[in-house]
Design a protein that fits this description.
Elements: H1 6-29, H2 35-56, H3 68-92, H4 98-102, H5 105-116, H6 123-139, H7 144-148, H8 151-172, H9 180-202, H10 212-239, H11 242-247, H12 251-264, H13 270-287, H14 291-295
Protein name: EamA domain-containing protein
Keywords: Cell membrane, Membrane, Transmembrane, Transmembrane helix
GO cellular component, one term: plasma membrane
């Protein structure tokens, strides 16, 4: 298992903080606002932020015509389905634990990699996947009664996780010879269009101006999630093996649970603390240098 470079590790820490804290932020943002419209506005405001980053870093915007079909497919698997399904699940499911279902993604990624891409997982990788699965189960311990009454939204979150896992694998194996920021910009722009169309189709009614809390959540998502986090994630996903990139973000749902406890008043149980330890095992399975790497 390759070790992380200092840049990758720094991006991972910042990404974990931004995404982990965003779960209660999203919950507050959609509490009294249509979720698809919330997502569409956030992305539209995030696109210029990402565009300015490309211009400042002199990264090209141009995408060759032959690359567009694959780029659209990457956008669908990495962003379209994920954002539509998960924001609806956040609206319906309880607090920070909506993140837990979304972050079953590493388990799906390991299975998809083995079945579709002939990935060979090391023993340590399987330990990380197992720790991840058990940790997710423990974090859901006190949610099972509520989730059983909302099977449709549970299914949406799981579909989002499985599709994102497929997208991560496809991104890793992509042959598009373009900078990651270019891919991120156009996938984000396409997702803004998709979310807008879905909102217009399914959230009919008089449009209303978001309130102060919703605007704060939108600003957080525009700058930190769509202006930074997605680009950072795509950079990690393209530069690391899928198991390493997916398991390395497993502290995000833990942060989502505990930040939800602080901001939304949710109770933290002993199962949550055990899950923290298991998530640390999952992270260590990909971050801790192997013996061969240490000897090298």
């Amino acid at each position: 298992m390759p070790s992380f470079t200092p840049r990758q590790f720094l991006l991972l820490v910042l990404l974990t903080l931004a995404w982990g804290l965003n779960w209660p932020v999203m919950k507050l943002g959609v509490a009294d606002y249509p979720p698809l419209a919330f997502r569409a506005i956030s992305i539209w405001l995030g696109v210029p932020v990402l565009g300015l980053a490309l211009a400042w870093m002199k990264v090209p915007f141009h995408v060759p015509r032959r690359a567009w079909p694959e780029l659209v497919w990457l956008g669908a698997t990495n962003m379209f389905i994920w954002h539509a399904c998960i924001i609806l699940a956040v609206k319906a499911l309880s607090g920070g634990r909506a993140a837990i279902l979304g972050y079953t993604m590493p388990v799906f990624s390991a299975v998809i990699g083995a079945l579709l891409f002939s990935a060979v997982l090391t023993r340590r990788s399987w330990v990380g996947v197992g720790a991840c699965a058990v940790g997710v189960g423990l974090l859901l311990w006190h949610e099972l009664t509520d989730l059983a009454g909302r099977p449709g939204y549970v299914a949406l979150a799981l579909v989002a996780a499985a599709t994102w896992a497929l997208g991560t694998q496809l991104l890793r194996h992509s042959r598009i010879g373009l900078p990651t920021l270019t891919l991120s910009f156009w996938m984000t722009a396409m997702t803004a269009v998709v979310m807008t169309v879905l909102s217009l189709l399914f959230e009919r009614g008089p449009w209303r101006w978001p309130g102060p809390v919703t605007w704060g959540s939108i600003a957080y998502n525009a700058v930190l999630i769509f202006g930074f986090a997605h680009a950072a994630w795509f950079y990690l996903a393209r530069g690391l093996p899928p198991v390493a990139s997916t398991l390395s973000v497993m502290f995000i749902p833990v942060l989502g649970v505990f930040s939800g406890a602080v901001w939304l008043g949710e109770v933290v149980h002993w199962q949550d603390w055990v899950a923290v330890a298991l998530m640390m095992v999952a992270i260590a399975s990909v971050l801790w240098p192997s013996r061969s790497a240490a000897k090298a």
